[in-house]
Amino acid sequence: MTYLNEHYPNYGPSSWPNPYQPTYTPSYPLSPWYQDEDSSYRAKEQPLTFVLVHGAWADTSFWAGIASELSKKGHTVYVPEFPGHGADPNKNVTHAMMSKSIADFIISHNLHNVVLVAHSFGGTLIQKVAELVPDRLKRLVFLNAFVLKDGGMAADEFPPQATEQFKQLVASSKNNTLMLPFELFRETFTNLGTLEQAKRIYSKVSPEPAGPLFEKLDLKKFYSLPIPKSYIHITEDNVIPFGDPNYGWHPHMSSRLGIFRFLQVHGDHMTTPQYEPKLIAAKIYEASRD
Amino acid sequence: MTYLNEHYPNYGPSSWPNPYQPTYTPSYPLSPWYQDEDSSYRAKEQPLTFVLVHGAWADTSFWAGIASELSKKGHTVYVPEFPGHGADPNKNVTHAMMSKSIADFIISHNLHNVVLVAHSFGGTLIQKVAELVPDRLKRLVFLNAFVLKDGGMAADEFPPQATEQFKQLVASSKNNTLMLPFELFRETFTNLGTLEQAKRIYSKVSPEPAGPLFEKLDLKKFYSLPIPKSYIHITEDNVIPFGDPNYGWHPHMSSRLGIFRFLQVHGDHMTTPQYEPKLIAAKIYEASRD
Amino acid sequence: MTYLNEHYPNYGPSSWPNPYQPTYTPSYPLSPWYQDEDSSYRAKEQPLTFVLVHGAWADTSFWAGIASELSKKGHTVYVPEFPGHGADPNKNVTHAMMSKSIADFIISHNLHNVVLVAHSFGGTLIQKVAELVPDRLKRLVFLNAFVLKDGGMAADEFPPQATEQFKQLVASSKNNTLMLPFELFRETFTNLGTLEQAKRIYSKVSPEPAGPLFEKLDLKKFYSLPIPKSYIHITEDNVIPFGDPNYGWHPHMSSRLGIFRFLQVHGDHMTTPQYEPKLIAAKIYEASRD
Which DSSP helix (H) or strand (E) runs through C115? Predict the structure, then answer.
């Protein structure tokens, strides 16, 4: 019986407690003392240390299923929350505050040889985390995550019409946050899910701090780092509108990584990672092993 | 025992009777009185009303397998034939005649909350049907179907070389129709099928009225309608030649829909819908549910 | 019991003997006298004659698993080695020497109605073989294989940065060969494999003669030949960097074939063909049957 199973017998995204803690202690203490009875099964995978970084309109619960699957295979998994998200009431945050909090988390827990995995907007965070703690990282894994060019910002990666819509939504928020209407979210973030799944995921969405989406990032150091990189392309992800070759997860953003390990898997942006965690966890492992 | 099974024990595309009737009565009377013994199974899907619109070089038998699978799940399914197709000997038809006949079918059967599904050239028809009966439609679903721009025509969506070949074939027809040579059809419409499957599908192909393929459509109203839309991309469909980003089902034509629900499935243009109907019917349901 | 099973009970890429012979006798004598006990099973596939042409950084062992699977289904399979590869110590070869040796192999074994299959660089070879022995070929099948334009060279199909890296590696070789560093090979040729699989495949890699990669080919005759063609796209192949629409297996190179039969399958460039041979052999058959 694993730690996870003991404490979360009704495991699932909705029963997953919010692991956010202001001091950024490890969210998933599935640490070196973690033991699985079926060690022969575990032995099949090279044990890795994962730090999973969620994206916008999400909190650490996004990773709950995937973290559980990875830990079942014997991996050590951390899911840090970062400022402006989870239980943090302060939405007035900067990109640097968020990336620094993740780097601090890695340092304070004395993690080394980390596989740093990002989903969606989290990609922009791990680009900066890599600049802050390069020597502690074994590999970066992007799961339909943003890879910004030097000087770019997340908002650049949406076509002008979508960015314009975002700006209007931000203007209507009064606190510089961006909330997505359910109709849009259902069709583009959860397009493969049932209505029930889409609603359950949407019920956990908080308004996203808008500032960091419009911050230009200096990424010169990132593009000089020799850290190995992987990109997992989820093929039915409809968050970035299709149709213009100058936009999109893959190959538009993935190709900025230069030499990288490429993987592909069916799914949409939000439903598949949360409702088919075994599938995505397996891909993350394939993307991460030596 | 369902209506379908009683009447078509040897169900299959080749044994399927031609449901074309000049008065456009419902082809598949699997209507509200339809009952399935396994109601608990049916309960899993939200019951929907589908109207399925076939494409060029096809008749209602194209949908036979998919209609059967959808009706097994408790949905109400109609497959109207339209002028110039099926048993209609008159090939001298216009695009407006075809789209009006489908709108008339929906009105005369007093259908509401319709999921209007199109394959291939049928996409151009449901764009116009949506303009004619917008209040009766719940959603439009395009299955590797044309989405024309305002003022566009179907022939525009093929590269110049292909269009030129089409024009030569039309010129050689003497009655302004377009018939595809088997060799071309086998390699591009039925590329995943066996030779036997390709021949069986081809045996049902009639020369297509050429006029509507070259008609420019005013679609201003279509692009102002707020009807939800889905696009199902069949990934090995080779009907529109690959290689030029200005052509193709997805993302070139799909992206014209703006915000839409995206799904993807393996298959080719003609064989997979007819020989893997359960697979495609499941995708159509996923594309159509709330 | 088949010939293969008798002689290679521990069949696998590593136990596969090098079938290279300077006189180019058939590597796989699974010829007309080949008999399988389960003839009813075999009867399901139309018996075909395959000649399989490997690519760069490979030898005939690349095809071992696929050749075995095809022969189990009753097909006749030949895997010729060509100059500069396998046991040939002479790396000072030309493109014409390689393509001529394959054409000579087909002639000397009196093969007709051949399905000529190529992987990777082998695509450039079968383009020229088709010019040499067009009347002996039933179909050309490209499995993530180069399709060069008239006057093109293989090196053109890589973005300038990659070509530059290749040139530096050639310059450092002292004998005009090109050897890939393991790190690059692992991430881009074997991205889906385990480290063990990647190492096992890499252990068989010899430096590739660089001359033919930079030879411009006159392909006017190729583009006038009416031989049917198929392209099998392996979707996670990362050998040609993604991101520029002017590069890539599909649709960039595949579309040069004009009308062709298109198929798609998951996999990477080197691991999947060697470790999932049943999957790839099935696709090759689908690409090749009438």
Answer: strand C114-120
Range(s) of the domain holding residue B259: 2-15+41-288
**How many structural domains comprise chain A?**
1
Residue C182 phi, psi dihedral angles, 5° rounding: -60, -40
Please list, in sequence order, all residues whose beta carbon lies within 8 angstroms of the beta carbon of residue B29, skipping any fewer than 6 positions away. B3
Q: Residue C21: inside a domain, yes or no?
A: no
**Is the distance from CB of C247 to CB of C158 less than 8 angstroms?**
yes
Residue B74: CB atoms within 10 Å: 20
In a domain, C28, yes or no: no
Do C262 and B238 lie within an 8 Å CB cutoff?
A: yes
CB atoms within 10 A of CB B158: 17
Q: Is C243 on the interface with A (CB under 8 A)?
A: yes
CATH code of the domain covering residue B255: 3.40.50.1820
Angle at C254 between CA C245 and CA C101, to 5 degrees: 125
| CB contact B235 to C (< 8 Å) | yes
Name every chain C residue with its beta carbon within 8 A of the beta carbon of A289: 194-195
Q: Give which of B133, B139, B135 is closest to B48, Cα–Cα.
A: B139
Helix axes B64-72 and B277-288, enclosed angle (nearest 10): 60
ipTM of the complex: 0.86
Q: What is the pLDDT of residues A59-110, one digit of tens each?
A: 999 999 999 999 999 999 999 999 999 999 999 999 999 999 999 999 999 9
Give just the sign of the alpha carbon dihedral B249, B255, B257, B259: positive
Q: Is the pTM of this model over 0.90?
A: no
The C-alpha atoms of residue A108 and residue C284 are separated, in whole angstroms, by 54
